[in-house]
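Q: Protein A?
A:
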Amino acid sequence: MAAVNARASSKLYTPELLALATGLADFPLTENLPLRAETRSRSCGSVIALGLAVDGAGLISAIGMAVSACAIGQASAALLAREAHGRDPGDILLAAQALERWLAGEGDLPAWPGIGALAPARDHPGRHGALLLPWKAACEALSQAAPAR
């Protein structure tokens, strides 16, 4: 049984996924990010505090996070952070919704750069909460933004 669990873990925690997790250091949570949210996964206890800023056109201009999560949550957060700059907030919402559908077996992975690295997590329901956590935090933070004029 331990050998089976070790094989499942090795497929989940790929070198690509672990490398992504280390990328969070490039996105620290700083005081100058006015749109904030903190989310916690009920299934695993992971926590993400996230801050965002949007520019005058309503596009994401900065993002930072403080993450206490497994490598799946960290990698998901890093994928969100490294591609968020310059995006319309609606892109984040659509990707979050697509991720939820995909995890439920009802759709494809969203068209988000690098998201395929998270594909092995679909077979591990205990990691779904951590995977979705940064996306939920970003959606919550963005809900505080004034609409673009």
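Q: Protein B?
A:
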Amino acid sequence: MKQESNIDILKDCGAILHGHFLLTSGRHSDTYVEKFKLLQYPLLTDKLCKSIAEHFESTKPHVIVGAATGGIIISHGVGRILTTRSIFAEREDSSLVFRRGFAIKKGERVLIVDDIITTGGSIIELIDLVVKNGGVIMGIGALIDRSGGKIDFGFPFYSFVSLDIPSHEPEKCPQCADGILITTRGRTGKK
């Protein structure tokens, strides 16, 4: 029942869109979750961050780590609730890196958070970055898991909403095969 009411939250704020979408992962899908339709509401965002924070509160993380852009908001919200630091990684060339003086001290307990998980690529990059910097990963939290729980990161995982939304490699996309226009970040164009 709780999962259904969590999905209703996404529907009520217009975050679940239907069409033909190019995802950040490069994959295509007929369903898109527009996180910023959700994140535009600070009190609702606080509620979702509180859900992640409460799930991992007992792990007592020293620092919450997210990835730019949506992950910054989630990291900050969870960090505020857990009264701990919040930092984020940014893309430099094609890799996630810490900039702006952010660092993880050797042995610091880290909670990794993200907005939406599709293939898990950004989370895997964050795991590698945190481990490379000497952090100890306590868990991974997300607002929305589009994989329906199919990805195992090797650490405790929690998502506010789990949806099983298929995505396709472009060459295997049924909508591309049907010649349906693709939408990418608010722009429409031909495949």
